[in-house]
Amino acid sequence: MLFKNLLAAAALAATAFAAPTAEKRQAQKLKWFGINESGAEFGEAVIPGAYGTEYIWYDKSTIDQFIAQGMNMFRLNFLMERLTPTLTGALDKAYLGNLTEQVDYITSKGAYAMIQPHNYGRFNGTIITDTAGFKTWWQNVAAQYKNNSLVVFDTNNEYHDMDQTLVFNLNQAAIDGVRAAGATSQYITPEGNSWSGAWTWVSSGNAASLVNLKDPENKLVYQMHQYLDTDGSGTHAECVSATIFSERLQAATQWLKDNGKLGVIGEFAGGVNTQCIAALQDGLSYLDANNDVWLGAIWWAAGPWWADYMYSMEPTSGPAWSGILPSIKSYFLS
Ligand SMILES: *[C@@H]1O[C@H](CO)[C@@H](O)[C@H](O)[C@H]1NC(C)=O
Ligand SMILES: *[C@@H]1O[C@H](CO)[C@@H](O)[C@H](O)[C@H]1NC(C)=O
Ligand SMILES: *[C@@H]1O[C@H](CO)[C@@H](O)[C@H](O)[C@H]1NC(C)=O
């Protein structure tokens, strides 16, 4: 999801909860029940920008609250340009330090942390064409986390309006860079062109192209995004129908099955209303029924600066924390 405006900071009142037991997590219907943590990519007009002014990292007490609800996957948004001022340059110590602090906190609780450059296949405003440089970027970043098997590498958020061969080549370069770093135990999630939409995965040409990605460790999980509004953009509170989520997943599900691949819904959301809740439940039930190929789903979004944003699941003030989470968590937990 593209979100341009920095929202006003909202004060947080957070309460720590105990982490769920390992047994409870193993009993999940879907491997991953997750949340997008958004804020470190905010203020992208100001690079590098300042922590607390242009961008923000995530509150550990809210991470605890999500874990207490059964969540075990955190998709961590950040900007490539803040981590490395040039594509192949050195990592910024402070920004990396913050990212690593969050990764270590999340994974110390037994949950997964997804490293997610929120860059749409662009760097400094330009489509990345330097695939060798992109491989180096990933090799440098993955080297930081190579010992941690609860880290998941997301090649890039939502490629769009790009040459399909380039999208393939960037994904392959990312996979090659991660593995060259010696990070061999982690999952990697390639994303597709056309904003990585599940509903257009086959019709956009992503399916035919990205089926040929190669991972020597065989740990690819194709990441697709799915919103339920009329244009699939995730910018409206209304959902098209009570069955739109499962309908939009069908072609991609068949593709995963036909090709022996795994998938994850890396972003999904709907507004707090009866029709959207019905659609969310129907779609999650469909994912449960097809959990041989779908590993899970990750809500869009949380983060300290979303204020009253319609999809915010930030504890405890986000509308979706009280309006959606209680109605969907049973689809993840046994
Ligand atoms: C970023 O792009 C601007 C022009 O848009 C250019 O002046 C600048 O040198 C670029 N920075 C890097 C690090 O490539
Ligand atoms: C997080 O970022 C802030 C601001 O740049 C910095 O002062 C701090 O040292 C960083 N934290 C870590 C653990 O690196
Ligand atoms: C990763 O493993 C190497 C070699 O076993 C070790 O030296 C290093 O301290 C480990 N790093 C972390 C972050 O655990």
From TrEMBL:
GO MF assignments: cellulase activity
Keywords: Glycosidase, Hydrolase, Signal
Enzyme class, UniProt record, top EC level: hydrolase
InterPro entries: GH, Glyco_hydro_5
Residue span(s) of domain Glycoside hydrolase family: 36-302
UniProt signal peptide: 1-18
GO biological process per UniProt: glucan catabolic process
Catalytic activity: Endohydrolysis of (1->4)-beta-D-glucosidic linkages in cellulose, lichenin and cereal beta-D-glucans
EC number(s) recorded for this UniProt protein: 3.2.1.4
Protein family per UniProt: Belongs to the glycosyl hydrolase 5 (cellulase A) family.
Protein name: cellulase
The organism of origin for this protein: Pleomassaria siparia CBS 279.74
